[in-house]
Automatic annotation (TrEMBL):
<keyword id="KW-0378">Hydrolase</keyword>
<dbReference type="InterPro" id="IPR017853">
    <property type="entry name" value="GH"/>
</dbReference>
<protein>
    <recommendedName>
        <fullName>Sucrase</fullName>
    </recommendedName>
</protein>
<feature type="domain" description="Glycoside hydrolase family 31 TIM barrel">
    <location>
        <begin position="1"/>
        <end position="81"/>
    </location>
</feature>
<dbReference type="InterPro" id="IPR013780">
    <property type="entry name" value="Glyco_hydro_b"/>
</dbReference>
<feature type="domain" description="Glycosyl hydrolase family 31 C-terminal">
    <location>
        <begin position="90"/>
        <end position="177"/>
    </location>
</feature>
<dbReference type="Pfam" id="PF01055">
    <property type="entry name" value="Glyco_hydro_31_2nd"/>
</dbReference>
<dbReference type="Pfam" id="PF21365">
    <property type="entry name" value="Glyco_hydro_31_3rd"/>
</dbReference>
<comment type="similarity">
    <text>Belongs to the glycosyl hydrolase 31 family.</text>
</comment>
<keyword id="KW-0326">Glycosidase</keyword>
<dbReference type="InterPro" id="IPR000322">
    <property type="entry name" value="Glyco_hydro_31_TIM"/>
</dbReference>
<dbReference type="InterPro" id="IPR048395">
    <property type="entry name" value="Glyco_hydro_31_C"/>
</dbReference>
Length: 316
């Protein structure tokens, strides 16, 4: 998968749990967790083999599979951005750590961890009976996806506790990941507001982008029927720039929850949004000073992402 990405073939993924022969319980569950982060993700096997889909096992297997697939579909807007960039720039979607950390020789032979784009690090359990994954965190600020906490480790090997219902995911500081609450299918999840994970770097900055089209059409980029918006955070301000807008009204999407990670231990008491018309809106904020996660809720303000906006948060 990593090699094919470097060859320019981005949409890859093995048949989860294997195509031939009966699957084993632990292997299949760990493969479901890994396979949730294949660009092409499907549990599939050959005719005449026993069922191996999640509900063919037991409730524990089903719940663990549902949890990790919900993460995949939550982050589908980020995966869509990576596919857009692969199509227009030739960049990779799934990439080895060495692709991002070229000067770090420790990353050169790592093939049991991988990245989605520059920002999401996946460290799966790959061996039988493994409950601790020996992984590597390159020299950057990293947040645990599951807790939003800064792990405060970098350029070092890490023993990651990995029970059977868990996969290790880390978000790299300095990046903004778009996300959306998943529904039973993408037709309905696309109707939900778009959220942002703003994972701040050491200097309190982050960058990201968002690609959106009708979700069905062919060659929407070639026909200019898409939205491309960039985001930047700096100095307690998040702002957007609309790079290209070719959407029809039926495909507009609004801003929802903004999760700022690494917001600090000083309580944020106020956040305001300035929309494209210069109108100021007061937003609901929730700041957990223990995890340093700040949640800013713009859902009720009907802020369209095809128009620029800025959000400022203040400590009190």
């Amino acid at each position: 998968m990593l090699e094919f990405s470097l060859f320019g073939i981005s949409y890859t993924g093995a048949d989860i749990c294997g195509f031939f022969n009966p699957a084993e319980y632990e292997m299949c569950l760990r493969w479901m967790q890994l396979g949730a982060f294949y660009p092409y993700s499907r549990n599939h096997n050959g005719k005449g083999n026993p069922r191996q889909d999640p509900v063919s096992w037991d409730e524990t297997f089903t719940e663990a599979s549902r949890d990790v697939l919900n993460i995949r579909y939550t982050l589908l807007p980020y995966l869509y951005v990576l596919m857009f960039e692969s199509h227009t720039k030739g960049s990779t979607v799934v990439r080895p750590l060495l692709h991002e950390f070229v000067k770090d020789k420790a990353t050169w032979d790592i093939h049991t961890q991988f990245l989605w784009g520059p920002a999401l690090l996946i460290s799966p359990a790959l061996g039988p009976g493994v409950t601790v994954v020996e992984g590597y965190l390159p020299n950057a600020r990293w947040y645990d996806y599951h807790t939003a906490k800064d792990v405060n480790m970098r350029a070092t090997k890490v023993s990651m506790i990995t029970p059977l219902n868990h996969i290790n995911l880390h978000v790299r500081g300095g990046y903004i990941l778009p996300w959306q609450k998943p529904e039973n299918n993408t037709f309905y999840s696309r109707k939900n507001p778009l959220g942002l994970i703003v994972a701040l770097s050491d200097s309190g900055t982050a960058q990201g982008s968002f690609f959106w089209d009708d979700g069905e059409g062919i060659d929407t980029v070639g026909r200019n029927q898409y939205l491309h918006t960039t985001f930047s955070a700096e100095g307690k301000t998040l702002s957007s720039v609309v790079v290209h807008h070719g959407l029809v009204a039926a495909d507009y999407v609004n801003l929802g929850l903004v999760k700022v990670w690494g917001a600090g231990t000083v309580k944020v008491t106020e956040a305001t949004l300035t929309d494209y018309e210069g109108v100021l809106h007061s937003l609901y904020v929730q700041h957990n000073t223990d995890t340093e996660e700040l949640i800013i809720d713009a859902t009720s303000k009907d802020v369209p992402l095809h128009l620029p906006f800025s959000i400022i948060w203040r400590t009190g």
